[in-house]
Here is the input.
Amino acid sequence: MTLEISSVDSIIIYFEASISPKILNQVQRAYKLLKPIEGIIDLTPSYNSLLIEYDIMLYDYQTIQKKIKEILTQHSKTQSNISNENKLIKIPTHYNTILGIDLERVAKINNLSIDEVIELHSQTIYRVYAIGFMVGFAYLATVPQQIITSRLATPRAKVPKGSVAIAEYQTAIYPQDSAGGWNIIGHTEFDDFESFEVGDSVQFMRLR
Amino acid sequence: MSGFRILNAGIFATIQDRGRYGYTHLGVCHSGAMDEYAYLWGQMLLNNHTQNSIELMTGLKLQATAPIQIAITGANLSFKINGISKPIWQTHQIYNGDILSFEKQLSGQRAYLCVQDGFILEKKYGSYATTLKEGLGIKLCRGDFLACISSSSSHKYRVKNSEIPNYQKPLILRVLLSYQEAFFSPKMKEKFFDSSYEITLQSDRMGYRLQGQAITPNKTDIISEGIAFGSIQIPQDGQPIVLLKERQTIGGYPKIGTVLPIDCYKLAQANIGSKIKFEVINIAVAQKKLQDFNRYFRAYLI
Here is the structure.
């Protein structure tokens, strides 16, 4: 675990740079411990990091770092009870090259048939590792090794709501029309984005 | 009912306050006034403790239905009352039937129209701020009515000339190197700080896309992480994007550092096509600058 200054009034904690349920739980634990602290304005958890925005009229960058370290080490000795209850959300998905405008390219880059990409994507059960980018945008991981695909070099100005997309080891559904640089491989009518919680399981169901 | 009727919404006018804090873990972005300096001056002129404003670009035209104390700050958009040019960065007493217009962009991008005690609206997630992509707040449309209390004052308050920013001045943004700065070689950093970048048309409340010397990190993808205000994101094409009030809460492009918030407020007023430069600042000095800013507006930081 390392603490780094991210901006004039924020600190970012980095945990081990891997994507695993174990690290996810560490991030959640730090989030819960720091949540009630006075002068912490916002906490943004993600896969292996926690962004902490604080009131610089209460703390300077040195005192906040000291305080965070104290809180996290103090509690590392005590047993934490983080509930692991989570639900499985199923996402009916249209996979095709019309709505999934990057599907063909994703197949080509990875030397797979379109059908293989779809099978690999829909047969994996993902977990919600973070919610962000926009309201209800759940970062799902981990995408099977064979279909890991880099983001677009230049993000698109508009990606339609309901687009199912891949960026590296992550997959997600765009809950709104938005700018974005992920590879779009399908589309869903699913609309209950507020039901996503970090830790939930998600599976895409191929519609034929 | 006292308030303003919108006769023409212009290019883009929304309700903004200082932003929505405490919900980034749900993906709810901060939003709020793009230029807090101008916004806070508007509130200070009116001694407002209930705060919101109209953040507007050219073309807005509205009519008062009662006597109302207002303050206009920010961009010079040739503000007129009943067709007669009026100074900005000061309060004005408006009367029933008066028509306020902002017809032409002379300097800056965004003006703030504040009214005595704020517009009477409902907060969502603790804020009046508008974020269209989240369906929060209000984008003004022709025919809308915004209610506020009727107010009168025989005093006029104005901002000293020395405190009024010149938005035409060449802009140097102070940057705290942070986040993935180690992904950028000393040579790349040198290139970044030596170059000037042009503000492109693809600039909005989410972020300002710049164009100039491409800089490339030695790693391109990172694990998505929380994005602080003013983060300078470098996508694969090497053209920096300064992320502002409606930035996404989490993202996976490398960031070379963060622009000091008070400089982001100036960037929000810079003209499309104008050139900016970056300069390094250290954390101790950066904190001092922001603390000074906060102390200046202390009583109005709601």
Observations:
- Residues 159 and 178 of chain A are 5 Å apart (CA to CA).
